[in-house]
Protein backbone atom coordinates (compact mmCIF):
# COMPACT_ATOMS: atom_id res chain seq x y z
CA UNK A 1 0.00 0.00 0.00
CA UNK A 2 1.18 3.52 -0.70
CA UNK A 3 1.28 6.07 2.09
CA UNK A 4 -0.64 9.25 1.31
CA UNK A 5 -0.23 11.96 3.93
CA UNK A 6 -2.58 14.91 3.83
CA UNK A 7 -0.67 18.21 4.00
CA UNK A 8 -1.56 20.03 7.20
CA UNK A 9 -0.22 23.41 8.23
CA UNK A 10 1.55 23.58 11.57
CA UNK A 11 -0.85 24.55 14.30
CA UNK A 12 -4.00 23.19 12.62
CA UNK A 13 -6.59 22.36 15.28
CA UNK A 14 -8.65 19.22 14.78
CA UNK A 15 -10.52 17.14 17.37
CA UNK A 16 -9.93 19.99 19.81
CA UNK A 17 -6.13 19.79 19.79
CA UNK A 18 -3.22 20.58 17.48
CA UNK A 19 -2.86 18.04 14.67
CA UNK A 20 0.04 15.63 15.28
CA UNK A 21 2.61 15.00 12.55
CA UNK A 22 2.65 11.65 10.75
CA UNK A 23 5.34 10.33 8.41
CA UNK A 24 4.80 6.55 8.34
CA UNK A 25 1.03 6.42 7.75
CA UNK A 26 -1.54 8.50 5.93
CA UNK A 27 -4.00 10.26 8.23
CA UNK A 28 -6.99 12.17 6.88
CA UNK A 29 -9.41 13.65 9.44
CA UNK A 30 -13.04 12.76 8.80
CA UNK A 31 -14.42 15.86 10.49
CA UNK A 32 -13.07 18.63 12.69
CA UNK A 33 -14.53 16.92 15.75
CA UNK A 34 -13.19 13.36 15.67
CA UNK A 35 -12.34 10.45 13.42
CA UNK A 36 -9.59 9.84 10.88
CA UNK A 37 -9.08 7.52 7.93
CA UNK A 38 -5.73 5.74 8.03
CA UNK A 39 -3.94 4.63 4.85
CA UNK A 40 -0.67 2.81 4.25
CA UNK A 41 -1.39 0.04 6.77
CA UNK A 42 -2.05 -3.65 6.08
CA UNK A 43 -3.66 -5.20 9.17
CA UNK A 44 -3.00 -8.72 7.95
CA UNK A 45 0.70 -8.19 8.75
CA UNK A 46 2.56 -7.23 11.93
CA UNK A 47 3.08 -3.48 12.28
CA UNK A 48 6.57 -2.03 12.68
CA UNK A 49 7.27 -0.12 15.88
CA UNK A 50 7.30 3.17 13.95
CA UNK A 51 3.94 2.52 12.29
CA UNK A 52 2.45 1.26 15.55
CA UNK A 53 3.45 4.45 17.36
CA UNK A 54 1.74 6.59 14.74
CA UNK A 55 -1.40 4.42 14.74
CA UNK A 56 -1.63 4.80 18.52
CA UNK A 57 -1.05 8.55 18.26
CA UNK A 58 -3.89 8.79 15.74
CA UNK A 59 -6.15 6.69 17.95
CA UNK A 60 -5.53 8.85 21.01
CA UNK A 61 -5.99 12.08 19.10
CA UNK A 62 -8.95 11.28 16.84
CA UNK A 63 -10.67 8.69 19.11
CA UNK A 64 -11.96 6.68 16.15
CA UNK A 65 -9.69 5.51 13.33
CA UNK A 66 -10.77 3.75 10.15
CA UNK A 67 -8.95 1.38 7.79
CA UNK A 68 -10.48 0.45 4.43
CA UNK A 69 -10.10 -2.79 2.43
CA UNK A 70 -8.77 -4.99 5.23
CA UNK A 71 -9.49 -8.59 4.20
CA UNK A 72 -8.32 -10.24 7.42
CA UNK A 73 -9.00 -13.49 9.24
CA UNK A 74 -10.54 -13.73 12.71
CA UNK A 75 -7.12 -14.46 14.19
CA UNK A 76 -5.57 -11.48 12.40
CA UNK A 77 -8.42 -9.35 13.72
CA UNK A 78 -7.64 -10.52 17.25
CA UNK A 79 -3.88 -10.02 16.81
CA UNK A 80 -4.38 -6.40 15.74
CA UNK A 81 -6.82 -5.87 18.60
CA UNK A 82 -4.28 -7.01 21.20
CA UNK A 83 -2.12 -4.03 20.27
CA UNK A 84 -4.61 -1.95 22.24
CA UNK A 85 -4.81 -4.26 25.25
CA UNK A 86 -6.30 -7.45 26.62
CA UNK A 87 -9.39 -8.87 24.92
CA UNK A 88 -12.43 -9.37 27.11
CA UNK A 89 -15.86 -10.96 26.90
CA UNK A 90 -19.10 -9.06 27.37
CA UNK A 91 -22.04 -10.62 29.22
CA UNK A 92 -24.80 -9.20 27.02
CA UNK A 93 -23.38 -9.08 23.49
CA UNK A 94 -23.92 -12.07 21.18
CA UNK A 95 -20.71 -13.90 20.31
CA UNK A 96 -19.47 -14.61 16.81
CA UNK A 97 -18.88 -18.10 15.36
CA UNK A 98 -18.04 -19.74 18.68
CA UNK A 99 -15.45 -17.14 19.70
CA UNK A 100 -16.28 -16.08 23.26
CA UNK A 101 -13.95 -13.07 22.93
CA UNK A 102 -15.54 -11.77 19.73
CA UNK A 103 -18.99 -10.22 19.39
CA UNK A 104 -21.28 -9.56 16.46
CA UNK A 105 -23.75 -6.80 15.63
CA UNK A 106 -26.13 -8.28 13.10
CA UNK A 107 -29.44 -7.34 11.58
CA UNK A 108 -30.87 -9.59 8.91
CA UNK A 109 -32.70 -8.10 5.96
CA UNK A 110 -36.11 -9.18 7.30
CA UNK A 111 -35.52 -8.15 10.92
CA UNK A 112 -36.78 -5.02 12.71
CA UNK A 113 -34.45 -2.38 14.14
CA UNK A 114 -35.29 -3.58 17.66
CA UNK A 115 -33.00 -6.64 17.43
CA UNK A 116 -29.99 -4.30 17.72
CA UNK A 117 -29.50 -2.86 21.24
CA UNK A 118 -29.17 0.87 21.85
CA UNK A 119 -29.86 2.78 18.68
CA UNK A 120 -29.35 6.02 20.63
CA UNK A 121 -25.99 7.56 21.51
CA UNK A 122 -24.28 5.60 24.27
CA UNK A 123 -21.04 4.17 25.58
CA UNK A 124 -20.77 0.38 25.75
CA UNK A 125 -21.04 -1.63 28.98
CA UNK A 126 -20.53 1.17 31.55
CA UNK A 127 -21.89 -1.18 34.23
CA UNK A 128 -18.64 -3.19 34.27
CA UNK A 129 -16.02 -2.38 36.94
CA UNK A 130 -13.56 -1.81 34.08
CA UNK A 131 -15.63 -0.80 31.06
CA UNK A 132 -14.15 -1.33 27.59
CA UNK A 133 -11.23 0.82 26.55
CA UNK A 134 -12.01 0.37 22.88
CA UNK A 135 -13.63 -1.82 20.27
CA UNK A 136 -12.11 -3.10 17.04
CA UNK A 137 -14.93 -3.66 14.54
CA UNK A 138 -14.95 -5.00 10.97
CA UNK A 139 -17.76 -5.08 8.43
CA UNK A 140 -18.49 -8.48 6.92
CA UNK A 141 -21.54 -7.17 5.10
CA UNK A 142 -22.96 -3.65 4.86
CA UNK A 143 -26.02 -2.11 3.22
CA UNK A 144 -25.46 -0.45 -0.13
CA UNK A 145 -26.71 2.80 1.39
CA UNK A 146 -27.19 3.68 5.05
CA UNK A 147 -26.22 1.81 8.19
CA UNK A 148 -23.50 4.28 9.23
CA UNK A 149 -22.20 4.55 12.77
CA UNK A 150 -22.08 8.05 14.26
CA UNK A 151 -19.62 9.09 16.96
CA UNK A 152 -19.56 12.10 19.27
CA UNK A 153 -16.48 13.51 20.99
CA UNK A 154 -17.34 13.84 24.67
CA UNK A 155 -14.16 15.78 25.41
CA UNK A 156 -15.58 18.59 23.31
CA UNK A 157 -18.95 18.27 25.02
CA UNK A 158 -17.32 18.67 28.45
CA UNK A 159 -15.10 21.57 27.37
CA UNK A 160 -18.11 23.60 26.25
CA UNK A 161 -20.00 23.22 29.54
CA UNK A 162 -20.31 26.20 31.86
CA UNK A 163 -17.89 26.28 34.78
CA UNK A 164 -20.81 25.84 37.17
CA UNK A 165 -22.02 22.65 35.52
CA UNK A 166 -18.47 21.32 35.31
CA UNK A 167 -18.17 21.85 39.06
CA UNK A 168 -21.49 20.07 39.71
CA UNK A 169 -20.57 17.10 37.52
CA UNK A 170 -17.13 16.81 39.11
CA UNK A 171 -18.83 15.79 42.35
CA UNK A 172 -21.30 13.32 40.84
CA UNK A 173 -21.10 9.57 40.43
CA UNK A 174 -23.36 7.46 38.23
CA UNK A 175 -24.86 4.07 39.06
CA UNK A 176 -24.88 1.80 36.00
CA UNK A 177 -26.45 -1.64 36.05
CA UNK A 178 -26.83 -4.44 33.53
CA UNK A 179 -28.51 -6.84 35.94
CA UNK A 180 -32.03 -6.63 34.58
CA UNK A 181 -31.51 -6.38 30.82
CA UNK A 182 -32.40 -10.05 30.25
CA UNK A 183 -35.55 -9.90 32.40
CA UNK A 184 -36.71 -6.74 30.69
CA UNK A 185 -36.04 -8.23 27.29
CA UNK A 186 -38.05 -11.37 28.09
CA UNK A 187 -41.11 -9.23 28.83
CA UNK A 188 -41.12 -7.74 25.34
CA UNK A 189 -43.04 -9.17 22.41
CA UNK A 190 -40.89 -11.55 20.37
CA UNK A 191 -40.72 -9.15 17.44
CA UNK A 192 -39.40 -6.37 19.71
CA UNK A 193 -36.76 -8.25 21.65
CA UNK A 194 -33.06 -7.43 21.52
CA UNK A 195 -30.56 -10.01 20.31
CA UNK A 196 -28.62 -10.76 23.52
CA UNK A 197 -26.09 -13.34 24.59
CA UNK A 198 -27.95 -16.20 26.25
CA UNK A 199 -25.38 -17.16 28.88
CA UNK A 200 -22.27 -15.76 30.55
CA UNK A 201 -19.96 -16.30 33.53
CA UNK A 202 -20.14 -12.80 35.03
CA UNK A 203 -21.26 -12.46 38.66
CA UNK A 204 -24.05 -10.18 39.85
CA UNK A 205 -21.46 -7.87 41.42
CA UNK A 206 -19.75 -7.47 38.05
CA UNK A 207 -22.99 -6.28 36.43
CA UNK A 208 -23.33 -3.07 38.47
CA UNK A 209 -20.81 -0.30 39.11
CA UNK A 210 -20.56 3.31 40.22
CA UNK A 211 -18.40 5.57 38.03
CA UNK A 212 -17.60 9.31 37.90
CA UNK A 213 -19.83 11.53 35.75
CA UNK A 214 -16.66 13.17 34.38
CA UNK A 215 -13.99 10.79 33.17
CA UNK A 216 -10.30 11.71 32.99
CA UNK A 217 -7.79 10.27 30.54
CA UNK A 218 -5.15 8.46 32.64
CA UNK A 219 -2.24 9.77 30.56
CA UNK A 220 -3.23 13.20 29.23
CA UNK A 221 -5.54 14.33 32.03
CA UNK A 222 -8.13 15.53 29.50
CA UNK A 223 -11.71 15.33 30.78
CA UNK A 224 -14.93 14.17 29.15
CA UNK A 225 -18.59 13.75 30.04
CA UNK A 226 -19.15 10.11 31.07
CA UNK A 227 -22.93 10.00 31.39
CA UNK A 228 -25.06 7.85 29.13
CA UNK A 229 -28.66 6.67 29.21
CA UNK A 230 -27.66 3.06 28.52
CA UNK A 231 -27.79 1.07 31.79
CA UNK A 232 -28.26 4.34 33.73
CA UNK A 233 -29.84 3.86 37.19
CA UNK A 234 -29.30 7.33 38.58
CA UNK A 235 -26.77 9.68 40.10
CA UNK A 236 -25.56 8.39 43.43
CA UNK A 237 -27.55 10.02 46.23
CA UNK A 238 -30.13 11.55 43.84
CA UNK A 239 -33.74 10.55 43.29
CA UNK A 240 -34.65 9.10 39.91
CA UNK A 241 -36.72 12.17 39.04
CA UNK A 242 -33.81 14.50 39.75
CA UNK A 243 -31.40 12.17 37.98
CA UNK A 244 -33.60 11.96 34.91
CA UNK A 245 -33.76 15.72 34.51
CA UNK A 246 -29.98 16.11 34.38
CA UNK A 247 -29.57 12.97 32.28
CA UNK A 248 -31.99 14.31 29.68
CA UNK A 249 -29.86 17.44 29.30
CA UNK A 250 -26.56 15.56 29.08
CA UNK A 251 -27.98 12.91 26.73
CA UNK A 252 -28.77 15.66 24.23
CA UNK A 253 -25.12 16.71 23.97
CA UNK A 254 -23.84 13.93 21.64
CA UNK A 255 -26.52 14.95 19.12
CA UNK A 256 -24.75 18.26 18.45
CA UNK A 257 -23.31 18.04 14.96
CA UNK A 258 -20.16 19.95 15.89
CA UNK A 259 -19.06 17.01 18.08
CA UNK A 260 -19.68 14.29 15.51
CA UNK A 261 -18.30 12.18 12.70
CA UNK A 262 -19.90 9.31 10.79
CA UNK A 263 -18.35 6.12 9.51
CA UNK A 264 -19.79 4.78 6.28
CA UNK A 265 -19.40 1.02 6.36
CA UNK A 266 -18.11 -0.96 3.40
CA UNK A 267 -17.08 -4.60 3.36
CA UNK A 268 -13.71 -5.08 5.09
CA UNK A 269 -13.74 -1.65 6.72
CA UNK A 270 -12.11 -1.86 10.16
CA UNK A 271 -12.52 0.80 12.82
CA UNK A 272 -11.16 1.23 16.33
CA UNK A 273 -13.02 3.57 18.65
CA UNK A 274 -12.27 4.82 22.14
CA UNK A 275 -15.26 3.74 24.19
CA UNK A 276 -14.20 5.88 27.15
CA UNK A 277 -14.35 9.32 25.56
CA UNK A 278 -16.76 8.86 22.66
CA UNK A 279 -20.42 8.02 22.46
CA UNK A 280 -21.69 6.20 19.40
CA UNK A 281 -24.93 5.33 17.65
CA UNK A 282 -25.78 2.86 14.89
CA UNK A 283 -28.00 4.50 12.27
CA UNK A 284 -30.64 2.11 10.98
CA UNK A 285 -31.76 4.04 7.92
CA UNK A 286 -31.84 1.05 5.59
CA UNK A 287 -34.39 -1.62 4.75
CA UNK A 288 -34.37 -5.13 3.31
CA UNK A 289 -30.59 -5.45 3.50
CA UNK A 290 -28.22 -7.28 5.83
CA UNK A 291 -25.77 -5.48 8.11
CA UNK A 292 -23.21 -7.72 9.79
CA UNK A 293 -20.35 -6.36 11.88
CA UNK A 294 -17.97 -8.30 14.11
CA UNK A 295 -15.77 -6.90 16.83
CA UNK A 296 -13.38 -7.50 19.66
CA UNK A 297 -13.53 -5.62 22.96
CA UNK A 298 -10.46 -4.46 24.88
CA UNK A 299 -10.74 -4.13 28.64
CA UNK A 300 -10.15 -0.66 30.04
CA UNK A 301 -8.97 0.84 33.29
CA UNK A 302 -11.31 1.66 36.15
CA UNK A 303 -12.73 5.12 35.34
CA UNK A 304 -11.17 8.06 37.16
What does this protein structure show overall?
By secondary structure, the chain is of the alpha+beta class. 18% of the residues lie in helices and 28% in strands. It has six helices and 18 strands. An eight-stranded mixed β-sheet has the order 3-4-5-16-8-18-7-6, covered by helices on one side. A hairpin with a 6-residue loop joins strand 3 and strand 4. The radius of gyration is 19 Å and the shape is globular. The model has no long low-confidence stretch (mean pLDDT 93).
Based on the model shown, name its key terms.
single chain, 304 residues, alpha+beta, eight-stranded mixed sheet, three-stranded antiparallel sheet, 18% helix
Concise structural overview:
With 304 residues, the chain is an alpha+beta fold. 18% of the residues lie in helices and 28% in strands. It is globular and about 50 Å long.
List the helices and strands and how they pair.
Blueprint: E1 13-14, E2 17-18, E3 26-29, E4 36-39, H1 49-62, E5 64-67, H2 74-81, E6 95-96, E7 99-107, E8 132-141, E9 149-153, H3 154-159, H4 163-170, E10 173-177, H5 181-186, E11 208-212, E12 214-216, E13 223-225, E14 232-235, H6 240-252, E15 260-263, E16 270-274, E17 278-282, E18 291-299
Parallel strand pairs: 4-5
Antiparallel strand pairs: 1-2, 3-4, 5-16, 6-7, 7-18, 8-16, 8-18, 9-15, 9-17, 10-11, 10-14, 12-13
Count of separate DSSP helical elements: 6
Instruction: Assign a percent range to the helix content.
Output: 10-25%
Report the principal-axis shape. globular
Distance between the termini: 40 Å
